[in-house]
Amino acid sequence: MDRTATARWEGDLRSGNGTMRLGSGAFEGPYSFKTRFESAPGTNPEELLGAAHAGCFSMALSGGLTKAGKPPKSIDTKAVVHLEGLDITKIELSTRVEAPGLTAAEFQALANDAKANCIVSKALAAVPISLQATLVGS
């Protein structure tokens, strides 16, 4: 199975602009130097990377919880991708999970396993990844 995305860039680095598009057509958005390194409206590669990581982690954790016989009611995950200069220096995952019947220790073990083994985490192994996992309503 292959997944695709495309990007088109026009112009020089600082004043140019571009568009990124998912192969599925589910998202298409503008990006530029200002959306990446300042706070202009639009998207950037790091934001999309964070969305991919949050989604992958949430699915991996759901799978682990379900396999353990404790399927979740909900998983809300945020990924903060830290860009310093021209380097991604770390990614902070934070998740709030409603999954009845789990002990805190079971939950933390499953969350850490999902962080280590989700496909995107594996692809980003060169970047430090932290996790703050909170179990709610159990």
What characteristic shape results from the CA principal axes? Answer: elongated
How would you sum up the major sheet?
3 strands, antiparallel
Number of domains: 2
Q: Can you tell me the CATH topology of the largest domain?
A: GMP Synthetase, Chain A, domain 3
What structural class is derived from the secondary structure elements? alpha+beta
Radius of gyration: 17 Å
Residue runs with pLDDT of under 50 for 5 or more positions: none
Order of helices and strands: EEEHHEEHHE
Mean pLDDT: 95
How many β strands by DSSP? 6
CATH class identity of the largest domain = Alpha Beta
Kindly describe this structure:
This protein folds into 2 domains: 5-37; 45-136, GMP Synthetase, Chain A, domain 3, CATH 3.30.300.20. Helix content is 34%, strand content 35%. The chain has helices spanning 33-37, 45-67, 104-117, 119-123; strands at residues 5-10, 17-22, 28-32, 74-84, 87-98, 129-136. The protein starts with a strand and ends with a strand.
Write the layout of secondary structure elements.
Blueprint: E1 5-10, E2 17-22, E3 28-32, H1 33-37, H2 45-67, E4 74-84, E5 87-98, H3 104-117, H4 119-123, E6 129-136
Parallel strand pairs: 5-6
Antiparallel strand pairs: 1-2, 2-3, 4-5
Features:
138 residues; alpha+beta; GMP Synthetase, Chain A, domain 3; three-stranded antiparallel β-sheet; 4 helices; 34% helix; 35% strand; elongated
In short:
The protein has two domains: 5-37; 45-136, GMP Synthetase, Chain A, domain 3. It has helices spanning 33-37, 45-67, 104-117, 119-123; strands spanning 5-10, 17-22, 28-32, 74-84, 87-98, 129-136. Helix 2 (45-67) crosses helix 3.
